[in-house]
Amino acid sequence: MSPVTQAVRPTVAAPAGTARLTSGRAPGFGSHLADFGPIPSLVAEGLLEELRASGLEGRGGAAFPAWRKIEAARARGRSRGRRAVVVGNAAEGEPLSSKDLTLLRMAPHLVIDGLLGVATTLDAGSIHLYGPESALPAVARALAERPDARAIDLRPSAETFVSGEASAVVSALAGRRPVPQDRTVRLTEAGLNGRPTLVHNVETLAQIALIARFGAAWFRSVGTATDPGTRLVTVSGDVASPGVLEIAGGTRIGDLLGFAGADTAALSAVLVGGYHGAWVPAAGFSANLAREQLAPFGAAVGAGILMALDARRCPLTLASSIAGYLAGETAGQCGPCVNGLPAMAEVLHRLARGDRNAGLPAEVRRLAELVTGRGSCHHPDGTARFVLSTLTVFAEDVAAHLGGRCAKDHS
Amino acid sequence: MTARPAANARLLLHIDWTACDGRGLCTEILPELLGRDEWGYPIAPGHGSDVPVPDRLAPAAEEAVALCPRLALSLRRRD
Ligand code: SF4
Ligand code: SF4
């Protein structure tokens, strides 16, 4: 697939290096225009072609090709004659992630450009921006600065773990409880009020704003063939400078931890993908943050969330508190999730706290398998993945607990 | 739970977990397909929310869909 760059004529030089989304000097509209230039008026086909050539994947966690979701909503709207709904999603229910909040504060106009660009492509009937209360003042200020953004409806998101799940977002916009819905058709076919509904993460939209300006070839000039461009990551845990970074796609995990000031020799593992993610042990720090290299660990890049763990800290104690938190975040709708997650967390808790019953790990595994795939959203699957990864990667710690000889810090 | 759900089945029985109350009526109608987990919810080992239905169980599956008091079940063709 050859990039279709001829459609794009930027008026301002494209950002060089890996600071792209974060290259703006200030969040105001004047600065935005000076730094990035005006949003080009790409016709629908032009933007879709450019996005397809760019290889951009969704940055909200599911890593689905960004263009394909737009195309699906577009095709549906045309065949049914129903105007689409476009939603920018900044609901980061994941406590370890703050990239979307950071982006909305640093570069709200890139997100707005992307939202408007996609809305034009779809000839959308309504446009919404859904994000946490703490991000709204910055966004409201940005919306007021430009005449073309009046149609954007700004909505506060719920602060629950599953609030960012696409069907939960649509529920919230419809005025219902912000919890996931049972779905047998895709949202791009029938979402808000039965209309084709496109929910894109705000970082995805901001990347779209840059690709619309500078083209697919520019996008791919950083990163790897399978993870082109840059991405925002949130690094937390046992590192000297936790926070949000913009990195090239496919950056080595060890390097990435180094950027955040980690002493990688002092770490036992890093959790990749957030609380629904999986652990990459220190021996795997040479792997790149990319699909193929993370797969052996059962991990995925997801929304770019990394949490480092110091080797002196007890991983089971930490994992047990996370599992307990996740059990408490079930949306209370699906029996296997409502019953299974607390049961699984409780068994892990017994193991973490020193119960030496040798059957505990097998019971955790049994419950993890029992809940997987049996909910209306992926919360049980993600929680089970995290718990199973903990037992696998920290098998020595499990053995130490069962043997009554874990000498690590349990605070 | 005697028969393994057919891998090449053309029908899928979808369970809406947000509606199901776990009283297990469907498991009485479709004992060959659905067991009950320890909380009473229907379970087909190896499958999650969409359970393949062998052709010969299609009538029973339709009955389960019609009789589920919570309207939690639906049948659709596999695409
Ligand atoms: S699986 Fe759990 S979190 Fe997801 S909708 Fe059902 S009850 Fe809520
Ligand atoms: S009959 Fe319906 S409500 Fe009852 S257990 Fe089966 S699916 Fe659930």
TrEMBL record, chain A:
<dbReference type="GO" id="GO:0051539">
    <property type="term" value="F:4 iron, 4 sulfur cluster binding"/>
</dbReference>
<dbReference type="InterPro" id="IPR037207">
    <property type="entry name" value="Nuop51_4Fe4S-bd_sf"/>
</dbReference>
<dbReference type="InterPro" id="IPR037225">
    <property type="entry name" value="Nuo51_FMN-bd_sf"/>
</dbReference>
<keyword id="KW-0411">Iron-sulfur</keyword>
<feature type="domain" description="NADH-ubiquinone oxidoreductase 51kDa subunit iron-sulphur binding">
    <location>
        <begin position="316"/>
        <end position="361"/>
    </location>
</feature>
<dbReference type="Pfam" id="PF01512">
    <property type="entry name" value="Complex1_51K"/>
</dbReference>
<keyword id="KW-0479">Metal-binding</keyword>
<dbReference type="Pfam" id="PF10531">
    <property type="entry name" value="SLBB"/>
</dbReference>
<dbReference type="Pfam" id="PF10589">
    <property type="entry name" value="NADH_4Fe-4S"/>
</dbReference>
<comment type="similarity">
    <text>Belongs to the complex I 51 kDa subunit family.</text>
</comment>
<dbReference type="InterPro" id="IPR019554">
    <property type="entry name" value="Soluble_ligand-bd"/>
</dbReference>
<dbReference type="GO" id="GO:0046872">
    <property type="term" value="F:metal ion binding"/>
</dbReference>
<dbReference type="InterPro" id="IPR011538">
    <property type="entry name" value="Nuo51_FMN-bd"/>
</dbReference>
<keyword id="KW-0004">4Fe-4S</keyword>
<dbReference type="InterPro" id="IPR019575">
    <property type="entry name" value="Nuop51_4Fe4S-bd"/>
</dbReference>
<keyword id="KW-0408">Iron</keyword>
<protein>
    <recommendedName>
        <fullName>NADH-ubiquinone oxidoreductase 51kDa subunit iron-sulphur binding domain-containing protein</fullName>
    </recommendedName>
</protein>
TrEMBL record, chain B:
<dbReference type="Pfam" id="PF13459">
    <property type="entry name" value="Fer4_15"/>
</dbReference>
<protein>
    <submittedName>
        <fullName>Ferredoxin</fullName>
    </submittedName>
</protein>
